[in-house]
Amino acid sequence: MTSTSRGTINMSGLSKATGVHASTLRSWETRYGLVAPARSAGGHRLYSQDDVERLMVVKELADAGFRLPELAGLSLDELRALRASPVRPDQQQLENPLVLQLERAVDERDPEAFGQYLRFAFLSLPANAAVDLYSRSMRHIGRRWSEGVIGVGMEHRLSARAREAITGAIAGLAPAGRREPIAFATLTEELHELGLLAGAYLAAAAGHKVIYFGANMPADDLAASTVSAGARLLVLSFVFGSARDQFAERLGELMAALPDSIPVWLGASPAALGGIALPPTVTLVHDFAEFNRRLKIQFTE
Question: The domain that contains 208 carries what CATH number?
Fold first, then answer.
């Protein structure tokens, strides 16, 4: 987001004002586009008072459980309003000791224990509860990374264990093919797939055959692969809001190549989309509860 006030604060001053480490602030900027600072004649970042307030509010919201990609597209006024809201994601905690065990494994930088607890969750909990716990764990990893508690390497190791746990859970469900096949993918340059995997798990738990193409699929190849696999529905995911213009272009290419008979659902937050116009044949799905409801409606027996 671009500030309307003049930038006069350097990175060191910004770090002191917000209480966020400089390397984390740079990651927030490059990875999520949370701020777009001016540059000095020497190429150094210069932040405005609006930038400082914006990042302070973002830190408060992230600590309260909001995800950084969801905050990136919001204006400062919208962030202030969200901070004033009485509802916080982490107020809806699962009454399950696995929550604390998973968060402790993250805080103690123990990816092996994290993976074991998550695998147990998928084995022992109903599908919706397992996905809630999985999603909460992903938010906790994101918060700890944004706070500088864990580095990028540890974030990747923990995410890899989460991916292993949920793909194993999908494979371990009842034999596929009892209900309509559903394809899952992200388009080119969208590498975030952990939310997409949660949707695939819910579809598999509902008895659908899951055709998982994964992340970073070219539009033409995805359209052809979806048709050849006999999918009755294509589910996409989009997280990285700073690449929304490229995403809109690739989505248009996909829809031009895909038969109208195959509906497309898109899992994304309004903040990530940033107001881009979706094709009328694309259905925006805001959360997993809505995903489950739409599955039941789309494929009524």
Answer: 3.40.50.280
Residue with tokens 């994101």: 142
Residues 60 and 58: their CA atoms lie apart, in Å, by 5
How far are the Cα atoms of 18, 107, 182, 184 from residue 215, in angstroms, in the given order?
Answer: 34, 28, 15, 9
CA gap 170, 182 in Å, rounded: 13
The pTM (predicted TM-score) of the whole model is 0.71
C-alpha span between 61 and 88 (Å, rounded): 8
Number of domains in the chain: 3
CA distance 220 to 265: 17
Q: Which two tokens stand for residue 138?
A: 């992903």
Q: What is the pLDDT of residues 155-192, one digit of tens each?
A: 999 999 999 999 999 998 865 456 889 999 999 999 99
Residue 30 belongs to domain with CATH number = 1.10.1660.10
Do 279 and 183 belong together in one domain?
Answer: yes
Instruction: Identify whether the C-beta of residue 211 lies closer than 8 Å to the C-beta of residue 229.
Output: yes
> Do 182 and 244 fall into the same domain?
yes
